[in-house]
Design a protein that fits this description.
Blueprint lengths: L15 E4 L7 H13 L3 E4 L14 E3 L8 H6 L4 E2 L2 H9 L20 E4 L4 H13 L3 E2 L9 E3 L6 H8 L5 E3 L1 H10 L61 E4 L7 H13 L3 E3 L7 E3 L6 H8 L3 E3 L1 H10 L26 E5 L3 H14 L2 E3 L8 E4 L5 H9 L2 E3 L1 H10 L30 H8 L73 H25 L7 H7 L12 H7 L4 H9 L6 E5 L9 H13 L2 E3 L8 E4 L6 H7 L4 E4 L1 H9 L13 H7 L3 H11 L8 E5 L6 H10 L3 E5 L20 H5 E6 L6 H13 L3 E6 H10 L11
Length: 826
Amino acid sequence: MDLDEPQPQGLFANCSFAIVRSATLTTKDAESLAGELKLHDGEVYIDDYPENNLDLSGITHVIATTSDFPDYHACCDALIPVVKPIWVSHSLAKDKLINPRQYTPDPRFFMSDVVACVADLPHGDADAISGGILAMGGLFSTKFTSQVTHIISLSSDSEACDYAQKKRLNVKVVLPHWVDDCLKLGRKIDEQPYMLPDPEILKPPMGKAPSGKRKTPVEGATDPDPSQQQPRSAQPRRLRKVFKNKTVMLAGDLGISQYLRDILHEIITAGGGELTDFVTKANMYIGKYREGRDYKIASRAGKDVGNLAWLYFLIQTDEWTSPLRRLLHYPIVRGGLPGFPSLKISLSNYSGEARTYLENLINATGAECTKTLKQDNTHLITAHVMSEKCAAAKDWGIHIVNHLWLEESYARWKMQSITDGKYTHFPKRTNLGDVVGHTQLDRHVLEQFFLSSEDTDMTDAEEPGPMRPMSKNTVSAGGLKQTRKANRGQTSNDPPTEQLRTPVPPRFIPTGKENVTPSTTNSRKSKEVASARLHELTPDILLYEKERKRVGGVVYGGRRKAGEDRAPVERKRSADQTSANGGESDTATKKIKRSNPQPTMHLIISGFNKWVGRPKIEDNDKKQLKNLGIICTSDPSKATHLAAPHIVRTQKFVTALAYAPLVISIDFIDACLDENKFLNPEDFRLQDEENEKRLNLSIEASRERARNNHNQLLEGRSIYCMENIHGGFETFKTIVEVNGGRCLQWRNRKVQTVPSSRADSEGSTDNDADHDVYLVTDGRKENKPSWSRFKEMAEEGGKVPRIVLTDWLLETAMSQQILPTQPYEV
């Protein structure tokens, strides 16, 4: 044997894993998993929480069964994938590192435990189902395997269903309607009413309301102010983990008695923690309201900020959980949510802790929660529509919504539009009380409460404690960072501070005029106007999304065949049709509707001046185009074609190019409308030699590169944008993210640190992606101090700073190739 010959390495030879223990991943399970990883040359570190938090330096993957652990947001900010243990076995089975996105334990990806395949469905339906499941964290298999958990089928007679039944496999055979309803609600609902061979939803209505079956996650989180209650675990039971080496501050606004404070002190100290009156020494801040100097200091420093209900929950379970995981575990706002104090809301068809939780959530918004429904009520929140209250609300014109409207309004701190179909969708055989309490708070929405402009003059002298990002690894009471076990001998890297990276695929929805180039000053007022404009456009966006789908939702044959709730869609007839056909029956009208061609084109349009300021003409033209098989969309990821008068630098045009649509002239629309037929788009390819020469690009070459890039042109690159950038941060953020990059806002703060690009650049051969960090700016002189601070931050992190004008990003995205930065550097 040649000793000089390199030995073959295992699958995980270049990986370093951290395994997070929890109630669902015990120490024994973690050690077993670690042994398997080491067997294939992986480096493994099992967390030793609560003694130390995770040191993420050098870590490439974190393995956990839940996203509810202290360092989850630090992993997201550092772009380190968090995967479930099954990712290991699946990677070994395929002998390659599988994309971790489909294995996230984050509950926002509610299909993460679903592996689906389809049987006896048309190809188009299968594509629609697979796209929805993949987008929500699930997996899709083109054929039946042992890993499949759900078979999507219209009947139980398929080959896959027969095989699963004969082998007695633990597989659920469900109608496609289940996927459709899950995606509409944004929640995973019970499969039982949709399961073959005898699905309840296809049976005639029995007049019986659906009953709740699931245990909801609101236990211990129903009341944000349980100050008069005594924690359940005031008994001598010793807590082993949750307070060990932790320092807790009880804020003065809690209003608790000295007796209760003494009880809490005894519990915390018996569990290995201590109480403090100084926020800079605390790891946990317990307060009632989102206000005050101590609250802001604790929040800015990234400490755990929760309310008394959260503290009681920790005592009850002795398991750490994020105070952002449940809406009423975080301090409330004095005065409530803007727009809500004038509302009178009643509840129907919720019971037990779910009802108590929703009543307290209504009170936390500032609205009035009424026991009975009267004509002066503004909203009725219900789990299903089969009740006397719902019937009365319809008669009185009261808004009927599900609890998701309330939860998401509170989480986003903005009243959500009731025109969003998610909030008015009630599956026939599902009690929505089963999915109460799954909505989480958004860290970036909460920043408005502790990063407000009036506090920007707060000096370091006023804040003696070291400032750190929200998601940074835990700091001890003395302010020193805990490090990993000594035998690893590595230095920890601080994760980036400003932007949370979520693995949701970027989706673009326009928030203003479509032809606005990145040249308009972005002020706070313009952001508010854009946000208001988005809410005005919500009904139209929903209408387009609805029209994009064929009748019947995801599965058309199934619903046409068996859905008893299919109402015939009537269509206005023209005068010519009426005179030609005389007294033709309604049946003929319905046949005309069904004879519409299926969509052959999804078209995104930019720069069509004919529609500017003429909504009626726009609506009529789009209806005519739809009848010709042309669906106008605002989502570039769905567009097959892009229409423009010439090459324009609008947000729509630039983002759409990343998906390689066929770029055609705007004349195609006029020609189709004039001739009232679908013309060949190849005859209308966009010809714009002048702008191609000026911008030094070729549309066809850009399309070819986009096909090869697969939306990963900027993969592994961190791109900052100035806070006051012309065109607005969100514009450039959209462009960066649709091309696979990571976009952060540069606020010129000392707490900002350069992000780790290890996770993004894993397997990349482009060294620039590892070492370059970009700041996109304009050439104004007042920005120069920010450029200097950015350069210092990048160099301190071992990166090469690239400070470039906005033209570099726009032209890079339009040409679909990384352009050299030298001509664009300031």
